């Protein structure tokens, strides 16, 4: 039964690596930008928003709608970059194994 024990140990080690990789994603930062850099959103690779920077020129009341649109665009840009960073990080943990879309690790 040694082979089964080895297999279970390998599975546990793989799960531990995946858990650590998930925790590490919150330390990876990306920046979404819109309006030619007038609005910037910093986020973790897990999608947690860390900060928002807005150029002073957009703070006029007449620019409210455009500012709201630019914030949404910057957030979406950061989210897209966070997804890419997360995929790259997980690829290194899974050894390049392609997991099905929506597949959540660990089980």
Notes on the structure:
This protein is an alpha+beta fold and 107 residues long. The protein has a domain at 25-94: Nucleoid-associated protein YbaB-like domain (Ybab, Chain: A, 2-Layer Sandwich), CATH 3.30.1310. Helix content is 51%, strand content 17%. The protein has a 3-stranded antiparallel sheet with strand order 1-2-3. The model has no long low-confidence stretch (mean pLDDT 81).
Features of the shown structure:
107 residues; alpha+beta; Ybab, Chain: A; three-stranded antiparallel beta sheet; 2 helices; 3 strands; rod-shaped
CATH class of the domain at 25-94: Alpha Beta
Q: What is the topology, as strand order, of the major beta sheet?
A: 1-2-3
Please identify which CATH superfamily of the domain at 25-94 we are dealing with: Nucleoid-associated protein YbaB-like domain
Class by helix and strand content? alpha+beta
CATH architecture label of the domain at 25-94: 2-Layer Sandwich
Low-pLDDT parts are none
What shape does the CA trace take?
rod-shaped
**Helix share, percent:** 40-55%
Which helices and strands occur, and which strands form pairs?
Elements: H1 2-25, E1 29-34, E2 39-44, E3 49-54, H2 64-94
Antiparallel strand pairs: 1-2, 2-3
Report a brief summary of the structure.
It is built from 2 helices and 3 strands, in the order αβββα.
């Amino acid at each position: 039964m040694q082979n089964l024990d080895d297999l279970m140990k390998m599975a546990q080690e793989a799960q531990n690596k995946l858990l650590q990789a998930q925790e590490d994603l919150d330390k990876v930062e990306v920046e979404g930008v819109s309006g030619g850099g007038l609005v910037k959103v910093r986020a973790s690779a897990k999608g947690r928003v860390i900060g928002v920077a807005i150029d002073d020129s957009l703070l006029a009341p007449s620019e409210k709608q455009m500012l709201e649109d630019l914030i949404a665009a910057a957030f979406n840009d950061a989210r897209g970059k966070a997804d890419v960073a997360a995929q790259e990080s997980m690829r290194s943990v899974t050894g390049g194994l392609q997991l099905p879309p929506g597949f959540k690790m660990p089980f």
